Amino acid sequence: MTLTSLVVWSAIYCLVKGAGRLRFGQASWDLVCLFHNGLSVLGGVISIYNWPFSEADTCTNIASPTAFVIYLQAIHCVTDCVFYARSLLDEPVFIAHHLVLFIASLILPQCPACYHTVLAFTIAELGSGAIAIDSEWRKLGLHSRGAKRLIFFGGSRIVNLYFLYKILRETPFTQYYTLSSRGSNLEIDEELFTINVPVCLLASLVGSGLMLLINGITWFRMLGAYARRHKGNLLPRVPDSKKTAFKAMVDLQLFVSFGVCFCVHVVPHLLPGWSTQDPSQLWFTWVL
Q: Which residues have CB under 8 Å from 24's CB, separation 6+?
């Protein structure tokens, strides 16, 4: 991944979220999240299928093609803050979620067992996608008790506990950082102090712990909604016109597809550094 890839993918996310805001307002958050979930799962599956390293190796950095699914999380967090700031402020749990996810995304690609980290992110996005699908399903006026999203979302987090175990087996418990000074003699280093800060271990444990706590709050809120709906105290939401809602969703998908086609065919002419061999070019094809 290059700076060009960062600019292009950020532009695509801005295009999708901007179009969603213009067409559906704040209510479009679920739809654009579904776009992000699907793209992340697809990217993660392709990365795992074409994995070039051993399972214990790092991804080198967040810009590595193997860390594409993690790369998308950072872009997703930043663009959400730009286009859905009000929704984030209304739900403090989402602010915590995005903050933890963004910090972890910057650190974890440089840590051992990146293979299992990519798997964990992919499974997590699959579970989160179940929520977005259920939300869009209801917006079309179709009945849903919410049981499937409870199972998929909760199950994905339980599965990720196994991947956390695999990650911790490869994660060092010691990472020493030394501060030294050369003083007046530039040929001799004088050690001032050494400190053990296991960054990867902290990122894995603290990041996973906080995300499990945040996702646990979300899961129990969904469980409460499911219980009320099961008892008949909460009626499914039905839009004014199912046909209009469905047409609006199709229109947005066509608009997004047009935007992606524009990026694929026009960007190489606008940016001389663009290479058809760059992995991001292949991602655009998959998006289409």
A: 31, 248, 252
